[in-house]
Design a protein that fits this description.
The chain has 196 residues and is of the alpha+beta class. The chain has 2 domains: 79 residues; 107 residues, Head domain of nucleotide exchange factor GrpE (Nucleotide Exchange Factor Grpe, Chain A, domain 2, Roll), CATH 2.30.22. It is built from 4 helices and 6 strands; from the N terminus they run H-H-H-H-E-E-E-E-E-E. It is elongated.
Length: 196
Amino acid sequence: MSDQQKNPSFDAEQILNNEAENIQPENENVESILEPEAEVFSSEFDEQLSLALEEAAKYKEAALRAQADSQNIRRRADLDVEKAHKFGLEKFAKEIVLVADNLERALASTEKTEGEDLMREGVELTLKGLLEALARFEVHIVDPHGEPFNPELHQAMTMVPNPDLEPNTVMDVIQKGYTLHGRLLRPAMVVVSSAA
């Protein structure tokens, strides 16, 4: 019997050793081949990652802008609703102040006499009630007699020299003005003093 037949494990060990020697150089070749591919893969991955991060930043900015726009639209809508509530009566109030003007003219045209005292008193009470009702709805009188002229609230009809008053002082009110919630409804028509 030969040595190989007597000791079969000897042959297996030798074969495994030979195979291991043959495999190692191949593994070294594989590693040397994979290293450049790994670098290429890594650089491609970094490039794709940076592109994805840039795109995510763009979407985040767009989302923040959309959120800010929606908040601005909501605020504007709230302000519009608030203005509609405050100034919805503007046209009606302009018509009602004409009634107040007519009642004031009626009082100015009547003289106090015994027979007309009751009628005059009735007109005065009607005017008082009307002005109180207007005040409840934030319609207030602009009666600037003796005040400095304010072009935002007054409309100068004429200027009259007056040495007793400072220039640009309201001497007389031809027609009272009105405001609605602080906004001018109608300017007061006034006579303004000028330097002598």
